[in-house]
Amino acid sequence: MEQIKITDEALSILKSGIVLKEKLLSVKAEGYLKRLKRFEKKHKMKSTEFFRAFKAGKLGDDAEWFDWIFVYEAYNKIIKQKKIIEGLSL
Questions:
Q1: Tens digits of residue pLDDT in 44-86
Q2: For a 10 Å CB count at each end of the chain, is N or C smaller?
Q3: Rounded to an integer, what distance in angstroms lies between the CA atom of residue 42 and that of residue 17?
Q4: Directed axis angle between helix 8-43 and helix 47-55, to 10°?
């Protein structure tokens, strides 16, 4: 992996940008989680169960399923990004 030289001043800016990104991801994650909980309550099914059933072709192609898939995948992507940031030593 290539190393990058960063000045102390630039490092400070990068750190604050990472902290801001983590806060934004947290806000987005909360919003997506609320939406997931509404889907789960409405359809009496956990999102993981829904995802497996949808991918197996057991649910059809109702537009709401695609909304749920989008929210589920977006939430999981955000959680992965948050874990990467949390693993950094700032």
A1: 999 999 999 999 999 989 999 999 999 999 999 999 999 999 9
A2: N
A3: 38
A4: 80
- Alpha helix (H) ranges present in 1-90? 8-43, 47-55, 63-86
Q: In angstroms, rounded to a whole number, what is the distance separating the alpha carbons of residues 39 and 45?
A: 8
Distance CA 45, CA 61 (A): 17
Distances (CA, A) of 66 to 26, 39, 55, 59, 61: 23, 12, 11, 11, 8
Q: Answer whether 36's CB lies under 8 Å from 72's CB.
A: yes
Amino acid making up residue 41: K
Q: What is the pLDDT of residue 66?
A: 96
> Hunting for tokens 């977006």 — which residue is that?
74
